[in-house]
Amino acid sequence: MVQDDIIFLGFGVDIEYYQWNMLGMVHISETAMQVLEKRKSGTGGKWELKTLEIIDSNPKVVLNFIKKEKMWATALVAIYWALVHEYGKKQVDEIAKEVFG
């Protein structure tokens, strides 16, 4: 990974949990399975998550996933901005209307 693989999308303040958030995404060369394998090594407690969900990055798949899963507001913003960055606002908004409409 190089610095150009890191994309900062925005900055936010979560008023529910009283914390600030730097929102962004990283492009990696590893497959989902390689990431899961790497996650198994090292010390415990290194992640705030108990599981890591692997889904297709297609906007319709992602938006259907977040419709079913409870997430904090900042996660929803980060996911939306990442989708818009990758697929464009018009396409993501049209799919969001279809999924949540």
Number of helices: 4
Number of domains: 1
Order of helices and strands: EEHHHH
Instruction: Report the end-to-end length measured between terminal Cα atoms.
Output: 38 Å
* Percentage beta strand: 15-25%
The residue-averaged pLDDT reads: 89
Describe what you observe in this structure.
Helix 2 packs across helix 4 (89-100). This protein has one domain. It has helices spanning 32-40, 59-68, 73-87, 89-100; strands spanning 6-14, 19-26. It is of the alpha+beta class.
Question: What labels would you give this structure?
Answer:
101 residues; alpha+beta; two-stranded antiparallel sheet; 4 helices; 46% helix
Give a quick rundown of the structure.
The chain has four helices and two strands. It has helices spanning 32-40, 59-68, 73-87, 89-100; strands at residues 6-14, 19-26. Helix 2 crosses helix 4 and helix 3 crosses helix 4 (89-100).
Would you spell out the secondary-structure blueprint of this structure?
Layout: E1 6-14, E2 19-26, H1 32-40, H2 59-68, H3 73-87, H4 89-100
